[in-house]
Amino acid sequence: MARKLAKTSSSNIPPEIIEIILSKLLSVKSLLRFKAVSKSWNTIISYPLFIQNHLDCSNNSPNNNLFLRRYTNSTDRGFPLVKLERGKIHAGGISVENIPNGYNVILCECNDVLLLTDRCSEKKYALWNPSTRRARHLATRYELNGDYVVDHGICYDKITGDFKVVFIFATKYAIYSCNNYSWTKKDLGTNCRNIGFTGSGIFVDGATYWILGVESKNISGTQLVYFDSTTDKLKVLRMPEQLYDDKIYFLSCNMASLRGSLCLYSYNYRDNSVHIWIKEKGIDFGDNRTNWKEFVTVGYLRLRYLWMTPLCFVENKVVIQEKSIRFVSTEKTVEEFLAVDVYRGRFIPYRDSLYFPAGVKTIRA
């Protein structure tokens, strides 16, 4: 009787009210359980707009400063989990059973869908969502054999709902469509190379970006390259004008994602300052529409290494990582985090997400 009454009461609640209530829940585990309540709840939680709104809430949550280290420890297969807050670093771990068997390296991420590989062979790849524990192996077959991979990336096409995995080679690039279970290989029309500590592709605001060395008849040097999912083409986006000025002594440019926006940053070794630019929202098609705003200049920051990267915001401060040293930086001050061994290496953002490629050929980790 009580169960029947609860069912009747739930059916009297308007669907839009149920959607609002469910959208307030950030826990993916809870939402997955609620999909079994009824067909209507399953439809609401599976709807693409609900999934995107849920991810937006996760990104805007004050507790979203979580990161996964790209590599597993030598002692186990768990990716170390790191949380940054108010000058402290908290280190933990993702349980071993969550990770697809045989994978121990995170190459890149898109909407919390991670591209994994094996550091020993790097000939097998899988997509994995650590929140839902869903995984899917990619059939590479002959398409990637014999070619040196310059870089990787994942791009989500919101129009078709397709996750596209992009492999960039020296003169070609390959696209794996999760909707079609197929590879497409295309010519670059130029030569590309990896230029060091730039990491893999970053998905921001509908496009995936890389910093690459490009050599062709029309263009040469370090370039900001992005993948346009609507045309499946790689294009070059003009960087801030200061980075083209030979009189300013910037070291090689790098990129990161801060609060859902693409940022470029570079170190001026003459005055020991880090300059960070933020790109306006939207995918640009042409130099004249590219708008960069200098977000912050962090002075008196002498780097011990040439590699560094902004990670996230903690309150109103930008967290900068330099090897094993972590800084909270504002325009005028540099404060060092309370030291905790969080393992040297680069990090991937981690937040709760319901995203995963559609299709029936999905396995559970």
UniProtKB/TrEMBL annotation:
Domain F-box: 13-54
Gene3D superfamilies xrefs: 1.20.1280.50
InterPro entries named in the record: F-box-assoc_dom_typ1, F-box-assoc_interact_dom, F-box-like_dom_sf, F-box_dom, SCF_F-box_component
Residue runs in coiled coils: none
Entry superkingdom: Eukaryota
Pfam families linked: F-box-like, FBA_1
SMART domains linked to this entry: FBOX (SM00256)
NCBIfam families referenced in this protein's UniProt entry, alphabetically: F_box_assoc_1
PANTHER family membership: BNACNNG10540D PROTEIN (PTHR31672), F-BOX PROTEIN CPR30-LIKE (PTHR31672:SF13)
Protein name: F-box domain-containing protein
Organism: Erythranthe guttata
Upper classification of the organism: Eukaryota, Viridiplantae, Streptophyta, Embryophyta, Tracheophyta
